[in-house]
Inverse folding.
């Protein structure tokens, strides 16, 4: 029992130090989009990023995808001069549980440097991508909570990729995650968002690391 208690204490101490270091990195983070990149944002675009903290790092490492990302959101432009993103975040990481909005500058500032990817859904019927942001705003108004069970078959709650998947399914009838497949892990991955089958990559800051 004593050794177990010591072991758990060491893990707790490690996690506290890890989070403190991440918070300091985020506090001094000067990451931002260029003016040209801000101008390129369109209503309904999708932003992917790697956030700070042990949870974000665990997601990125656990998924082990081509690009290290841990979160995603939909761009919403209520007016020409106003840009926010709508995303779903757990109350363990945010003051609000579930679907919420945040200003674009804050969203980027809370992203690890050179981790942001901007993609644009390409609907085969040519429908406006604004439908995505409108649908995301609909779920925002409904105050849909975060899906801590990560159960994509339950649409009463959303985790971040589930929100984007549901908006696309609702508006375009396209199941980008193939939720009927047996491998549930694929429904949690981000790689589908840079597949040319569904999306155009507008810019990818991960290429700056190469």
């Amino acid at each position: 029992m004593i050794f177990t208690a010591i072991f758990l204490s060491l893990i707790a101490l490690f996690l506290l130090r890890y989070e403190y270091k991440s918070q300091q990195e985020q506090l001094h983070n000067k990451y931002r989009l260029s003016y040209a990149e801000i101008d390129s944002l369109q209503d309904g675009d999708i932003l992917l990023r790697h956030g700070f903290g042990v949870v974000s790092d665990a997601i990125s490492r656990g998924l082990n995808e081509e690009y290290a990302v841990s979160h995603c959101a939909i761009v919403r432009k209520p007016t020409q001069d106003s840009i926010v993103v709508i995303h779903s975040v757990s109350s363990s990481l945010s003051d609000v549980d579930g679907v919420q909005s945040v200003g674009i500058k804050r969203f980027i500032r809370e992203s690890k440097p050179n981790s942001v990817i901007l993609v644009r859904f390409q609907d085969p019927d040519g429908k406006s991508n604004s439908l995505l942001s409108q649908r995301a705003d609909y779920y925002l108004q409904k105050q849909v909570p975060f899906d801590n069970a990560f159960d994509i078959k339950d649409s009463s709650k959303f985790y971040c990729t589930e929100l984007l998947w549901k908006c696309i399914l609702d508006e375009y009838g396209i199941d980008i995650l193939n939720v009927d497949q047996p491998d549930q892990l694929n429904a949690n991955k981000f790689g589908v968002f840079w597949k040319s089958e569904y999306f155009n990559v507008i810019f990818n800051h991960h290429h700056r690391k190469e």
About this structure: The first strand starts at residue 46 and ends at 49.
